[in-house]
Amino acid sequence: MLRLFGKNIAAARRAYLNFVAKGIARGRRPELVGGGLLRSVGGWSALKAIRSTGMRTMGDERILGSQDFIESVLRQAHETYDQQALAMAKGVDLDTLIGGVADHFQIEPQIIKSASKQRRISRARAIVCCLAVDQLRLSAADVARKLSLTPSAGSKLLVRGHQDGLAKTMAKEIFSLK
Q1: Where does the pLDDT of residue 26 fall: very low under 50, low under 70, confident under 90, or very high at 90 and above?
Q2: Inter-residue contact 70 to 33 (CB < 8 Å)
Q3: Domain 94-175 superfamily per CATH
Q4: Rounded CA separation 81/57 (Å)
Q5: Residues 6+ away with beta carbon under 8 Å from 109
Q6: 122-155 pLDDT tens trace
Q7: Looking at residue 1, what is its pLDDT?
Q8: What residue spans define the domains of the chain?
Q9: CA 157, CA 124: separation in Å to the nearest integer?
Q10: Whole-angstrom Cα distance, residue 143 to residue 152?
Q11: Torsion on CA atoms 21, 22, 25, 29, rounded to nearest 10
């Protein structure tokens, strides 16, 4: 870290202390205070509503960067939250998602949760993983457990789902996204 502030250790320490002092002098900035799950979901009432559904959510992490960068990240995070909120409002959960993907592939939902290695079923599993992580904001490990897979297998399916163009089409069908 200190190498970013200088080659000489003593000069780098002084430059770092100066950097921190300038940041302190700017004071507290409300848009950068109080991060975490509470802010990312929109307050206590929104958090209670989400928890009552049993759905797990991801909290945001602290963001380092310029004002423009921070605003950009927060704007993107809000769009992501809007997608999740839309899915919840439509009553789409993981079981609904699995059912929608199963319908598309004309298979039973339980088959997606089976150990079958058929290409079509594996592709359906990959799309479920992709959409569950991207749209429902579930962790790949949680989705893998629901599909009776190891977390590693869930992560691999997530990557395959992202590479499959059908995932975007399925997102539009199931989540009515544009």
Answers
A1: confident
A2: no
A3: DnaA protein, C-terminal DNA-binding domain (1.10.1750.10)
A4: 10
A5: 95, 98, 99, 102
A6: 999 999 999 999 888 888 888 999 999 999 998 9
A7: 84
A8: 1-33, 94-175
A9: 10
A10: 11
A11: -110
Residues 97-103, mean pLDDT to the nearest whole number = 93
Query: What is the pLDDT, as a whole number, of residue 60?
Result: 41
pLDDT value at 121 more than 80:
yes
- Encoded tokens for 77: 């995070």
**pLDDT above 80 (res 165):** yes
pLDDT of residue 79: 60
Biggest CA–CA distance in the chain, Å, is 68
Judged against a pLDDT cut of 70, whether residue 59 lies above it is answered with no
SS3 string, the chain, reads CHHHCCCCHHHHHHHHHHHHHHHHHCCCCHHHCCCCHHHHHCCHHHHHHHHHCCCCCCCCCCCCCCHHHHHHHHHHHHHHHHHHHHHHHCCCCHHHHHHHHHHHHCCCHHHHCCCCCCHHHHHHHHHHHHHHHHCCCCCHHHHHHHCCCCHHHHHHHHHHHHHCCHHHHHHHHHHCCC
